[in-house]
Amino acid sequence: MLKNDTFLRALLREPVDYTPVWMMRQAGRYLPEYCATRKQAGSFLLLCKNTDLATEVTLQPLERFPLDAAILFSDILTVPDAMGLGLYFAEGEGPKFERTVRTEEDVAKLFVPDVNTELKYVMDAVSSIRKGLDNRVPLIGFSGSPYTLACYMIEGGSSDDYRNIKTMMYARPDLLHRILEVNTLTVIDYLNAQIEAGAQAVQIFDSWGGSLPFGKYQEFSLQYMARIVAGLKRENEGRKVPVIVFTKGGGQWLEDIAATGCDAIGLDWTTDIGQARRRVGDKVALQGNFDPVALFAPPAAIEAEVKRIIASYASAGEAKTGHVFNLGHGISQYTNPDHAAALVAAVHRFSGKKA
Ligand code: 1CP
């Protein structure tokens, strides 16, 4: 039995005693203990593939802060790597792929990787983390969205204008749809395998769907996420497994996202959470929406922001249900861990958690 199920209850819009909180990318380079373990592993990818060390870094932020959920330590790019594209990290440059998917021939070679062989190390990490957690808090599994994965597969790394994928979208939409089809089948298998291995909620990271024009977002990103939601195993160990859809920059499409059948929508910081709740609050829970850059400000300013978000959510209905506090995007590697501690404490204090 879970000792703290506040996070799962909030996602299902059941009553909670206080607002649960976790931080996007809560295990990472802003924690000195993470940097030490990563050094021991040799590289980021070796860290992801080492069951014991991946478990260790997943638990590190929970040792420091009273977080209400853990998130699997892995990366969305494990999927294109398992498709044979050759993921590597160039020092100081972020993720890169040895091979890209841009031509008819590249697309013909794509395949749905076997989640029980190529991606077995991820499932091993999930089982090991569940043991390490000992039911303290729930474990979140995750995947990139088909469109966000395609961005990396086609661009070959990060991009500031998504020139290659968008050119394909306008010039050869059929080709992009074929890639998204393979990615969708892959993500369904991948998330279901994580659920079977012990993930108690799952999040789809559509980090770059918000770069699409109106209409194209629905056709090239949302449609495929809706198919994933419909294809997931939504119950395990006798409990519902909630699904969170996070489209960064998706604030204008909340009604459409709610219609995918997800349980919760992740919000970046550009949307007012009270307004978002008035738009979709009787259909889904909301997760967000603190600007991660505000963590550079002094604790008093961080607390004021936390208060504002909690009050905005409460202005649109009952406070103690349906909100998971989070950052609107990943925590920066330059964040002071004491400021992250101030955020977590403020969420609990302002939402009435008993000491
Ligand atoms: O050197 C290092 O230690 C690498 C830094 C790092 C870390 C800590 C990367 C490379 N990935 C991760 C872990 C990670 N990535 C987690 C688990 C950790 C946790 O949350 O506690 C998760 C959930 C992700 C998800 C992820 N990876 C996303 C979606 C969320 C988002 O930020 O939008 C994306 C887009 C990635 C790709 C990626 N992997 C790593 C980096 C630096 C990036 C972003 C590159 C870019 O901006 O294009």
Automatic annotation (TrEMBL):
Reaction it catalyzes: uroporphyrinogen III + 4 H(+) = coproporphyrinogen III + 4 CO2
- Gene Ontology terms, MF aspect: uroporphyrinogen decarboxylase activity
* Domain called Uroporphyrinogen decarboxylase (URO-D): residue spans: 20-29, 140-156
Q: Where is this site: Transition state stabilizer?
A: D75
**Metabolic or biological pathway, per its Swiss-Prot or TrEMBL entry:** Porphyrin-containing compound metabolism; protoporphyrin-IX biosynthesis; coproporphyrinogen-III from 5-aminolevulinate: step 4/4
Alphabetical GO CC annotations of the entry are: cytosol
Q: Which domain of life is it from?
A: Bacteria
EC number assigned by the record: 4.1.1.37
Q: Which residues bind substrate?
A: R25, Q26, A27, G28, R29, D75, Y152, S207, H329
What compartments host this protein?
Answer: Cytoplasm
Q: Which CDD domains match?
A: URO-D
Q: Name one GO biological process term.
A: protoporphyrinogen IX biosynthetic process from glutamate
Which UniProt keywords are present, listed alphabetically? Answer: Cytoplasm, Decarboxylase, Lyase, Porphyrin biosynthesis
Please give the chief subcellular localization of this protein. cytoplasm
Write down the PANTHER family for this protein, in alphabetical order: METHYLTETRAHYDROFOLATE:HOMOCYSTEINE METHYLTRANSFERASE RELATED, UROPORPHYRINOGEN DECARBOXYLASE
Protein's job: Catalyzes the decarboxylation of four acetate groups of uroporphyrinogen-III to yield coproporphyrinogen-III.
This protein's assembly is summarised as:
Homodimer.
Identify its protein family: Belongs to the uroporphyrinogen decarboxylase family.
This chain's protein is named Uroporphyrinogen decarboxylase
Species the sequence originates in: Chitinibacter fontanus
Give the organism's phylogenetic lineage: Bacteria, Pseudomonadati, Pseudomonadota, Betaproteobacteria, Neisseriales
